[in-house]
Amino acid sequence: MRNHVQPGRTLTLPAPADVKSGEGVIVGSIFGVANGDAATGEDVDLDVEGVFDLPKVSALAINPGDLVYWVAADKAVSKTASGNTKIGVATTAAGNPSGSVAVRLNGSF
Q1: Given a cut of 90, is residue 47 above it in pLDDT?
Q2: Residue 108 above 90 pLDDT?
Q3: Do residues 102 and 90 make contact, with C-beta atoms less than 8 angstroms apart?
Q4: HEC string of 2-17?
Q5: Is the pTM of this model over 0.85?
Q6: What's the order of all strands across the beta sheet hosting 50-55?
Q7: Domain residue extents for the chain
C-alpha cells in the first residue's frame, strides 16, 4: 500500500513537558506511555497500545473492565471522566488504597 505510514502502536511526538521513561503523556488528544526520557519539545516515542501498569489515585477502587481516565495534574489514573482524558480499560483489580493498576490503552483516538 503506497499510503501506509506506520503500524501506529508507537508514535514519535514532541514532549509537551519533561518526561521520564514509563510516564503517561498527553499530546493533544493522544495518550501514550513514554519509551524514554525527553525534555520539553524533544521527540519522545509513546506507546499508544498495549497493557501498562500505571499510577492511580490511591483512594480509589478499580475493577477489571472499568473505563479509566488520565488526570493530567496528578499524572494518575482515575474513573472520573469530567475534565480528564479517556485512556482505556483496567485489566486488573486495584483496591483502595493501592498505587497502580494495569490498563489496556485505547490506541484508537
Answers
A1: yes
A2: no
A3: yes
A4: CCCCCCCCEEEEECCC
A5: yes
A6: 50-55, 100-105, 85-90, 67-71, 76-78
A7: 10-105
